[in-house]
Design goal:
With 268 residues, the chain is α/β, with parallel strands linked by helices. It has a single domain, classed as 3-Layer(aba) Sandwich (Rossmann fold), CATH 3.40.50.720. 40% of the residues lie in helices and 13% in strands. The protein contains 8 helices and 7 strands. The chain has a 7-stranded parallel beta sheet with strand order 3-2-1-4-5-6-7, sandwiched between helices. The protein starts with a helix and ends in a 7-residue tail after the last strand. The relative contact order is 0.15. Keywords: NADP, Oxidoreductase. This is 3-oxoacyl-[acyl-carrier protein] reductase. Belongs to the short-chain dehydrogenases/reductases (SDR) family.
Length: 268
């Protein structure tokens, strides 16, 4: 029987959910959901958070940066290029001498009828959402193994991976996120031998630049009555608790799960 202390450390299981002293990387965290996750990580004790993004930072990022001076940083990389992600992670390790968690969050979305999607549009979605997610997880796992860290990988999946959005369908998007959830289970199984945990979070309707149109629909109030659940979209920060838990040592025996955060509304 494995000695419990040797696998959990001298203090045994953690009883508090926090990220004290941890270095966390988050892809696509210059804005939106990723930035909300970064904010929550820092407010729960993370030592440093690195946004790995292909774009530039903006006012939202600067506002968070001011609140956590010197603790949030931005690196430019392309998640669809494994070498690019490896370089970014190596920069983090060179500066911090550590990496404890990777949130694989960068993604694309496009909603249209399946018969209308072009090959280019499908490839754009799958390159970022599916292939990019796999590359990012693999880069993180290799780093954890090299550092001897029992790290945590958390994917951003979607409620669209469970069921379609009838109002704005996207078969390629839903398929890519379903692939992410399956990847979560398979990688969790493969990497458990290294003490690496792999989980995912499935947001429902979240208030971001990509969902501005949702509340502008003329029958939105009626939709809410039909769907039931909480009659509003989620704020990005409301997702953070799930990610913080999965990244924390309190989740030391939690792996291969998906946490839906959808206010019961979900995708219908």
């Amino acid at each position: 029987m494995t000695d419990r202390v040797s696998t959990l450390g001298p203090e045994g299981p953690k009883k508090q959910i926090n990220l004290d002293g941890k270095v966390i990387a988050i892809t696509g965290a210059n804005r939106g959901i990723g930035l909300g996750i970064a904010d929550c990580c820092l407010s729960n004790g993370a030592k440093a958070v690195y946004s790995i993004d292909i774009g530039d930072t903006g006012e939202e990022f600067e506002a968070v940066s001011k609140r956590y001076s010197g603790q949030i940083h931005a690196l430019r990389a392309d998640v669809t290029k494994e070498d690019s992600m490896t370089d970014a992670v190596n920069q983090i390790i060179q500066k911090e001498e550590a990496l404890h968690g990777m949130v694989v969050n960068a993604g694309r979305t496009k909603h249209k009828a399946a018969l209308d999607f072009t090959t280019e549009e499908i490839e754009q979605l799958w390159n970022v959402n599916l292939f990019g997610s796999f590359y990012c997880a693999r880069v993180a796992a290799r780093a954890f193994i090299k550092l001897g860290v029992k790290g945590s990988i958390v994917f951003t999946a979607s409620m669209a991976s469970y069921r379609p959005n009838k109002r704005v369908p996207s078969a390629p998007y839903g398929a890519s996120k379903a692939g992410v959830r399956n990847m979560t289970h398979t990688l969790a199984m493969e990497w458990a031998q290294y003490g690496i945990r792999v989980n995912s979070v499935s947001p429902g309707l979240v208030k971001t630049a990509m969902t501005y149109w949702v509340e502008q629909q003329p029958d939105w109030e009626q939709q809410l009555k039909y769907y039931g659940g909480m009659p509003r979209l989620a704020e990005v920060e409301e997702l953070g608790g799930a990610y913080v838990y999965l990244l924390s040592d309190a989740a030391s025996y939690t792996t291969s799960i998906d946490i839906p955060v959808n206010g019961v509304i979900g995708i219908c």
